[in-house]
């Protein structure tokens, strides 16, 4: 059976609809950085998603090729995630999506090292006749966060975030945004196949 992060580590992928405190350990990701309104045609965000999934599935399907990755085990490709921010704004201003900066990312098993990524970029670029060099390997240790399951439109997130901030205050913590700690979303639904009111998004904000 392929290892499924969502099933094996439910505390990170199945929060309730009420905010909760969580301590997030170090995790490995493939990532692409960009900026701009993610909803625009041919946006940097949409390009980043194509790059990430190309790399993720080349790593997963390497089991069928001749190149053997050290310590490889089969896995279900985890959901897309994103870190979001805007210069000069501690939180997120949804009225100015054109000012968004982001790191789009997909979690990877720990056997994915820089050497593995280097091979994968070369392999994927040749097979798909494209340039996948924008994909980087990062580790992220988020530490203490408030997280919640947001159900519905992305544009309705501000109300959910306010509830998260109220919960934080009631529990003696406060938002702690910085260059290392960002607004974090995990997308459990495919917006192309899911009604807007049913979209499931984990929202995670750093606190101290």
TrEMBL record:
Name residues in a coiled coil.
none
Boundaries of every GyrI-like small molecule binding domain copy = 18-208
Q: Which domain of life is it from?
A: Bacteria
> By its UniProt entry, which InterPro entries does this protein fall under?
GyrI-like (IPR029442), GyrI-like_CCH_Lin2189-like (IPR008319), Reg_factor_effector_dom_sf (IPR011256)
Signal peptide range: none
Recorded protein name is GyrI-like domain-containing protein
What taxonomic lineage is listed for the species of origin?
A: Bacteria, Bacillati, Bacillota, Bacilli, Lactobacillales
């Amino acid at each position: 059976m392929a290892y499924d992060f969502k099933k094996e580590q439910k505390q990170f992928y199945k929060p309730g609809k009420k905010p909760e405190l969580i301590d997030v350990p170090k995790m490995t990701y493939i990532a692409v950085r960009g900026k701009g309104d993610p909803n625009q045609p041919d946006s940097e965000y949409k390009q980043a998603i194509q790059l990430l999934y190309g790399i993720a599935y080349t790593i997963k399907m390497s089991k069928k090729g001749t190149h053997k990755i050290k310590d490889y085990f089969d896995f279900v490709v985890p959901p897309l995630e994103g870190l979001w921010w805007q210069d000069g704004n501690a939180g997120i201003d949804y009225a100015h999506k054109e000012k968004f900066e982001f790191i789009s990312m997909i979690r990877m098993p720990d056997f994915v090292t820089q050497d593995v990524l280097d091979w994968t970029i070369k392999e994927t670029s040749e097979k798909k006749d494209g340039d996948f060099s924008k994909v980087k390997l990062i580790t992220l240790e988020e530490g203490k966060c408030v997280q919640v399951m947001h159900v519905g439109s992305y544009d309705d997130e501000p109300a959910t975030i306010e509830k998260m901030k109220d919960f934080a205050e009631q529990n003696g913590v406060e938002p702690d945004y910085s260059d290392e700690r960002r607004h974090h979303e995990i997308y459990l639904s495919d917006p192309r196949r899911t009604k807007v009111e049913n979209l499931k998004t984990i929202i995670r904000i750093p606190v101290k």
